[in-house]
Records
---
Amino acid sequence: MPPTVAFLSAEMAPFAKTGGLGDVAAALPRYLHRAGHDVRPFLPWYGHLELPAAPRPVPFARDVPVRLGRWDFRFSLFETALPGEDLPVFLVSCPPLFGRREIYSARGDEHLRFALLTRAAVESCQRMGFAPRIFHANDWHTALLPLYLRTHYSWDRLFARTRTVLTLHNLAYQGVFPEWAVADLDLAPHAGLLHQEDLRAGRVSFLKTGLLHADAITAVSGTYAREILTPEHGFGLDGLLRARAGSLHGIANGIDTEIWSPERDALIPARYSAEDLSGKDLCRSHLLQSLGLLPRPKGPVLGMVTRLTAQKGIDLAAAVVPDLLAAADVRLVVLGGGDPGHVEFFRGLQRRFPGKAAFRTGRDEGLAHRIEAGADLFLMPSLFEPCGLNQMYSQRYGTPPVVRRTGGLADTVTHFDRRTGEGTGFVFDHPTAAGLEWALREALECWSDRRAWRRLQANGMAMDFSWERQAGRYAGLYASLS
Ligand code: ADP
Ligand code: GLC
């Protein structure tokens, strides 16, 4: 019998997504479910969720009280399903905390929101009589789960054989709050189990608490799992991670080929495959036309779809791309939101290079797919990248990525060697403008050799990034935690 799993996440596509966490939190439960696991994902019922059908209330989980310090909340549990799937998804409804448009908010109650999600997931399992062998938490939002199980719920025999897994998607976000939040989290009586140095420094960290108490920790790629043991990539957690290195596993994300593959993608104007790329040409001209760019450039169309944050190496792109646009007959298409400085930069680029550069901001799922399909090169010069999904999508779409050798990018892209015909993209080592310039030069040289370029595309399209295998690795980890 495969183990039963309760899966907690702040995001889950297509309901709620700001980045890759949303994609992974939808795909991993789905593939585990197909492999025969009883998986129950828990997600907040945010105010903006568009749901395919009215969710059904779950019996015995209505108006359940949860005390968080001086706060008394009540939540109700609802059940819906992923579109086209018989996998149930459990929505935690608590309007005072989740009934707002944004997934993450700046109203000073983030600690309460995600502590409530975590507590509600456990309380719901109790009310459903569901004894998960594995409680799987993701990122800082649900990282208090192992400690809550060890304290508030240690009396409940339902969880006697339950083990906890914490997956690290991005150490840049840790959920650090002032020390007064400990009372709000209902953890004051258990302060001895929190990170003592942090408390002395007047703060409490959700992620650190998870790292202290989870039975197993995973990072979203093998290279990232090694990198975070170093001060350079550990974001201050490397010491703690080194102490737990025996319980830390690197498992790369997969991609959901039902959503992301050019053969069946309903969001792109024409479908295509490695055998027949003519549809990709159509996607390319459609993309340029729809964004008001000049048609038929001699050089490649460069695409980016990204959160605009320092992590993504936007400053490197900013240092290199304007000169390229000025010097060569190339196009640039960027979809992204986030840092206002970066948004302004790309708006400026669009003004400076009319007909050559287009920028769109805000979330646009359709445009994200059309860029993967219609671009020739995908730019992802990240300073660090725990795993990264876009570089895997782009290989699948015959759009070789230009990446820095870091984290999951190092594990999923190999530099193309024109002599041997091996490789799937362009990989540079140093996070400098010169590094990115070198990689783009390599790409442009290869572009002018059509046979080499076809080979490069074919190599990428043949890569197997399937979730079947990666979900199997999670299943193996679950089974080992007896
Ligand atoms: P991260 O999680 O760090 O943002 P990933 O590469 O793992 O990076 O995942 C990014 C995901 O978010 C991809 O599915 C990408 O298509 C999507 N994405 C990023 N920005 C946008 C946007 N503005 N509109 C639509 N999708 C976006
Ligand atoms: C994070 C990381 C990204 C990873 C995603 C899903 O947002 O930045 O590299 O692919 O989580 O695990």
---
Amino acid sequence: MPITTDPKLRSFVDYDEKSHFPIQNLPFGIFTEKGQTRPGVRIGDMVLDLAVLEKRGFFPSRPKLFNTSTLNPFLAMGRSTWRAVRATVSRLLREDVGELRDNSELRGKALIPVQNITLQMPVAIGDYTDFYSSREHAVNVGTMFRGKENALMPNWRHLPVAYHGRSSSVVLSGTPIRRPRGQVILENQENPVFTASRLLDFELEVGFFIGPGSELGHPVPVDAAAEHIFGMVLVNDWSARDIQKWEYQPLGPFTAKNFATSISPWVVPLDALEPFLCKAPEQVPRPLPYLQAKNARTYDINLEVYLQNSRISSSNFKYLYWNIAQQLAHHTITGCNVNPGDLMASGTISAPGEGGCGSMLELSWNGSKPIRLHNGEERKFLRDGDTVTLTGWCQGAGFRVGFGEVTGTILPALD
Ligand code: MN
């Protein structure tokens, strides 16, 4: 295990054991302070300015990697650079290393309180793909629409189903979400009407960012996938179920999902998640050889959904049937190339049993069982003014490696 994830590491920056951003995490983001936008690493409630450190010569191998307003150049460099930068940042933040701790001039410039910054999109996203990799979610939705016997389509256990999404409308946490309008079939009607969506929903997902790209015509082998994946964020794939139901056949979702997808601002490196690797779910039938990893593993990441401050769901990333290596291997098996900064999301993650559903569609069982919030209100789907917050973290011994949160509030539809 790399030294940067050692549970015994302590930083001279203060935080408590529930902080999502201890020295074992060190996620990367993009922030603006005093009119300048640049990359930073989060530690407790502070941001370490990578552009300042680069100017002072702390990252000698690649000048100008952090003199930018996106993480894309850094993502493109690959694992050895990611690890070298992470090791330097980890060392500088240690409580037993004086280089930054005892240099008050540098500390004043390089460590900035989060309340003084504005967060930006961390990555310029070229392409966005959304998978459908939670068996529990697929079974729930399939049961609702096709009945228990036909819940999973015949292809589902053989390949990670996905659709090509829309990167232009991927937005940062905190961006308000306008209720979309579109074509909907009302009850007992044959023809559609044009209306504001009445069945607006969230989807609890986790996404990963591509690091070094692949060449057109050259699939990424399942066992090499990790070389191409930098890290992960929380994703809320907002969905309009009434629009989706009418439009989705035969090519899958289109306008029901292209109006907004929210992501959390801090990208947690796979290196920080390594101590939380766990066994991936057993796959029956055995997938075809190009989807068989030598060591099939996934990550133990606790996930929660809050609606108006009421926790309405608890799930875990480890339940995902198809892991991220299989997703990338399948995505590229035809020779489709990927580029630094591409986003691939898991699909709605639902847990087995009650209380772990990753969408309102499942929580309210297609609107037939309203859920109750702390304040006594009920919901079947989202109302105007509702705020949905997703959060996630890995639990270490006395610390959390977390993702922070991704949040968004629903605005009324246009007139
Ligand atoms: Mn989705």
